[in-house]
């Protein structure tokens, strides 16, 4: 059923009790052309684009928990594309272009809000970094404005710009913003199922069957299944699945935490990011401040981080915004992120034929969801990455052609 | 994991320490001769197990010395800490 004003009115006569389910719970079939492992935004989106644009008919998405219950539902929902390097700029801007039409494409309101993102500069070095990156963004056709102290003070009047971490300027991307993360997973799931994709929840992959160097099937908690091609999109558990297929990845899985405050009236109409003092904050439509910062340094699959990281988030937040210091924090949670040495993702082929991987998004995958899904769908269907995905191959860790965003641009995502 | 047993100082709060990744990785003896694949494996590729992990920590705000930790990445429980150069413990040793 299409979501429309007409159907909203029509369903109101039956007290909204007769809306059909957005997606069903089909049984696992014995054989598929393509299986996507991982039912987050990237995986569901991949299945959607495979069915819609690349003509694949028989697709399943396997999710060990519930869809969107992993990192898709645990991030701070920031979307931007002001990356330094050409390769990253192309990938993340592809995503922003798709974000702009996503709600109408999926017939599902993902609440994409281009409220603008201020990337703060606290020192002369920071000013040089944002200037360099801003000019790099211009050259790549990405909107960027380099603001001085007065301009920032006028835009965000309640920020403490003369405090311990003085704000000297900011890099503003007006096309950046936030979206409702759950809605992204739900919207892709509903749209994919309308195109005939089977979404199998509570189905964990336990083994990968390989014959003569080619993937031929999967062992799951709901039985075994034959398959022609597999796309792994497992985020934090990438290394666990790679291990099943007999190869290792240049990835460490670490905890990343976020937290939200009690809801308050509108006070922050943009996204604030600071790499130097390391905090990022925005206000959700419910009124909660959504706060995040860096990951823990140790490997873990526990989905919880250490307490001192929370202090590291809060200290710069209350220094930049003393007005927030009396707010109560309602919830904090952790997700497990798969971090690569260069903080750029891995999209493409693996040592196993017809087994493809899309992982290593680390702390910043949400913003790329539609772009990542779109280029990965093309990679899976054609067997080769397209021009946008090609620089992010696993092979770059042998050739040395890293896309080094960790040192060069934003550490925080 | 709130308290870590430094092999030199004894039990201290976790915030005094920092983690520096997988332990027991040997640099190839002949870097000029190894292939790009072998060098890439050495530099970047890591065991990232869901289970027992061996890793390097430093006691930054204490003795500043490096040591190794054997830890379960599912529960974050530390099984054993031991000095650099000590034999890597087997799973049956603890």
Classify the oligomer: heterodimer
Q: Main beta sheet of chain A: strand number and arrangement? A: 8 strands, mixed
Count of alpha and pi helical runs of chain A: 12
Indicate the CATH class of chain B.
Answer: Alpha Beta
**Which protein chains make the most extensive interface, counting residues with beta carbons within 8 Å of the other chain's beta carbons?**
A-B, 27 and 29 residues
pLDDT average of chain B, as an integer? Answer: 94
CATH architecture of chain B: 2-Layer Sandwich
Beta percentage of chain B is: 35-45%
The value of Rg of chain B in angstroms is 15 Å
Helix content of chain A: 25-40%
How many β-strand stretches of chain A?
18
Q: How much is the average pLDDT of chain A?
A: 94
Which strand order do you get reading across the main beta sheet of chain B? 3-4-5-6
CATH superfamily of the largest domain in chain A: FAD/NAD(P)-binding domain
CATH architecture of the largest domain in chain A: 3-Layer(bba) Sandwich
CATH homology group of chain B: Folate-binding superfamily
What's the SSE pattern of chain B? EEEHEEE
- The shape of chain B is globular
Separation of the first and last Cα atoms of chain A: 36 Å
Per-chain topology:
The complex is a heterodimer of chains A (413) and B (94).
Chain A: H1 5-12, E1 31-37, H2 41-53, E2 59-62, E3 78-79, H3 86-100, H4 102-106, E4 117-121, H5 124-139, E5 145-148, H6 149-155, E6 169-173, E7 177-178, H7 181-194, E8 198-200, E9 205-211, E10 214-220, E11 223-232, H8 238-244, E12 252-261, E13 271-274, E14 279-283, E15 289-295, H9 307-320, E16 329-339, E17 346-349, E18 355-359, H10 369-382, H11 396-399, H12 405-408
Parallel strand pairs in A: 1-2, 1-11, 2-8, 4-13, 11-18
Antiparallel strand pairs in A: 3-7, 4-6, 5-6, 9-10, 10-11, 12-15, 12-16, 13-14, 14-15, 17-18
Chain B: E1 3-6, E2 10-13, E3 18-22, H1 36-43, E4 52-58, E5 66-72, E6 78-83
Antiparallel strand pairs in B: 1-2, 3-4, 4-5, 5-6
